[in-house]
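Open question from group meeting: does this chain pack into something compact, or does most of it stay loose? Before anyone orders reagents, we agreed to write out a predicted structure and look at it together. Recording both the input and the output here so the notebook holds the full record.
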Amino acid sequence: MNITEELKSYIIELGAADVGIAPAKRFDRVPEGHRPGDYLKGTESVVTFTYNLSRGAVKNLPSSRNEYMQEFEMANRTLSEIAHKTARFLEERSFDSLAFGPEASIGDYSRLKGDFSHKHSAFLCGLGHFGVNNLLITPKHRAQIRLASVATTAKLDYDNVAISRECEKCQKCVKACPSGALSSWKDTYSPETGWTIDKEKCAHYIFVVLGSKRCGMCVQACT
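Structure tokens returned:
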């Protein structure tokens, strides 16, 4: 078993649902300041992995809002631990590594934007494509997932970029969004790069209307 196979097996054993790996050069079109090499000098590879949310907590929204929050937080905690242990796994083999957790960084939290885009990385790592809801859609769990990533100086075996296919454009997520943040998707949505939703409307609904409780209706509409 080579290091890539060992690494993937280790991540799955830690609880991840799926894992993909991409070379750092695939991120050349990412805006400066958000490329893996901007945070870890000498980055050669990016490892991104998924963790699926409980169906019960998602499908019964909005009545299961509190339970969804618990599931959301536990998923993030699990992903943070997996990312931490994955980086340690690689550093123990003499490869500098940096874990990117599933939540936005503190400085960008109100804008729902982190240092590194797990969704774009997941597409480049072959894990799925973007939906109209601007979430990653995976073959097995649809949008019912959370993501985390690790940048590393290790040269690994790489997965192919995800097969680009349009989501069904059923617009269930657009209709389900209580803030109207998904209304302008037409002519801007791309299955490869997603699109920029109205983050101010989304953030206002989460942090003001719901008092910082996660909404999840766009996830619930795509399960």
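Observations to bring back to the group:
The chain has a mean pLDDT of 92.
The longest helix spans residues 65-91.
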